[in-house]
Amino acid sequence: MIEKAEKYNDYKHNRFAVAPMIDWTDRHCRAFHRQFTRHALLYTEMVVADAAIHGNRERILGFAEGEHPVAVQLGGSDPAKLAEAARIGEAMGYQEINLNVGCPSDRVQSGTFGACLMQTPSVVAVCVHAMKQAVALPVTVKCRIGVDDQDTVVALDELAQGVFNAGADALWVHARKAWLKGLSPKENRDIPPLDYDRVYRLKRQNPSQFIGINGGIQTLGEAVEHLNHVDGVMLGRAVYNNPMLLLDVDATVYGSKDASSSLDAIIDHMCDYADAHIARGGRLSHITRHMVGLFHGAPGARRWRQILSTDANQANADSAVIRRAYGVIQTSFADEAA
């Protein structure tokens, strides 16, 4: 068995991650986000183990080589199925297998996985052990600090102790409870209060284990502050709604001296990417829906959003729509500078 300190060292470079988000972080979103940062860890949407095993693997799990480093997040509670899904993820070329123990949606609860697994930490530990036995990749867990009326001191400690004893390489913690009854998934992202100190305490108790934090982090400055207390920071909606936030991640978090991509280069790449996707039978809107927040708060941003949200949905729409929208931004920037 690999010593805990060695596992921590193997994983410690993953200091910044974009959170897995259902219906959002698909392969086109990841391809877009990768244009802003070479080093941030990107995650798939949650993939149910049964879908990975029995579904169309290229459609469900396929990704481009340029997305690396990229991890697959699995959902499930059957150790054998999760082990098989983990083997599939490894064979597909992912660099990490993550188990979802944090999603509070009704459909996840009905499958007895996601956040409801906080109530059965021994099951989570068995699942992690099975996945660790199945693959050579890092196996990690993303959880909440507790659910419903659980005591977060007890619940999070039990979950963490179980998964680390089972061999988990990292624990990413969304620093809120999840309320399985009475709150929608959207409300569960905002209403339960954040408790960052609870995650900090967990790290102090587990100095040789990788502990990452997630939940309500809005800026890169906030992310850097969290890194004074934990090993990694994960942003979700803030990055999705304002992808420009990713431009400074490599320099600020990883100390990279490589120049960030220019906006012109990012637009050129996404136009080429879009046209290739369309040539394979896809639609422009599959890609542009992830790009509408790019110029958040900038001159011309409203018109950018309008063009991408309407024109990209027209029949035969191609990359010319993106270039036309970008032309509006360039004109707006020039007008403001004049």
Summary?
Its cofactor is FMN. Helix content is 46%, strand content 14%. It is of the alpha/beta class.
Spatial order of strands in the largest sheet: 1-2-3-4-5-6-7-8
Number of DSSP helical runs: 17
Shape: globular
Query: Mind telling me which CATH architecture of the largest domain this is?
Result: Alpha-Beta Barrel
Taken together, the total number of domains comes to: 2
- CATH homology group of the largest domain: Aldolase class I
Family: Belongs to the Dus family. DusA subfamily. Belongs to the dus family.
Protein name: tRNA-dihydrouridine(20/20a) synthase
Keywords: Flavoprotein, FMN, NADP, Nucleotide-binding, Oxidoreductase, RNA-binding, tRNA processing, tRNA-binding
Pfam family, one: Dus
Show the helix and strand layout.
Elements: H1 4-11, E1 16-18, H2 27-33, E2 41-48, H3 49-54, H4 57-61, E3 70-75, H5 79-92, E4 97-101, H6 106-110, H7 121-134, E5 139-147, H8 152-165, E6 170-178, H9 185-188, H10 196-205, E7 211-214, H11 220-226, E8 232-235, H12 237-241, H13 249-254, H14 263-279, H15 285-288, H16 301-310, H17 320-337
Structure commentary:
- There is one protein chain.
- The model is unreliable at 1-5 (pLDDT under 50).
- Helix 5 links the parallel strand 3 (70-75) and strand 4.
- This protein has helices at 4-11, 27-33, 49-54, 57-61, 79-92, 106-110, 121-134, 152-165, 185-188, 196-205, 220-226, 237-241, 249-254, 263-279, 285-288, 301-310, 320-337; strands at 16-18, 41-48, 70-75, 97-101, 139-147, 170-178, 211-214, 232-235.
- It folds into 2 domains: 4-254, Aldolase class I (TIM Barrel); 263-337, Four Helix Bundle (Hemerythrin (Met), subunit A).
- Helix 5 (79-92) crosses helix 7, helix 7 packs parallel to helix 8 and helix 14 runs antiparallel to helix 17 (320-337).
- The protein is built from 17 helices and 8 strands.
- It has 338 residues and is an alpha/beta fold.
- It has an 8-stranded parallel β-barrel with strand order 1-2-3-4-5-6-7-8, surrounded by 6 helices.
- InterPro entries: Aldolase_TIM, DUS-like_FMN-bd, DUS_fam, DusA, tRNA_hU_synthase_CS.
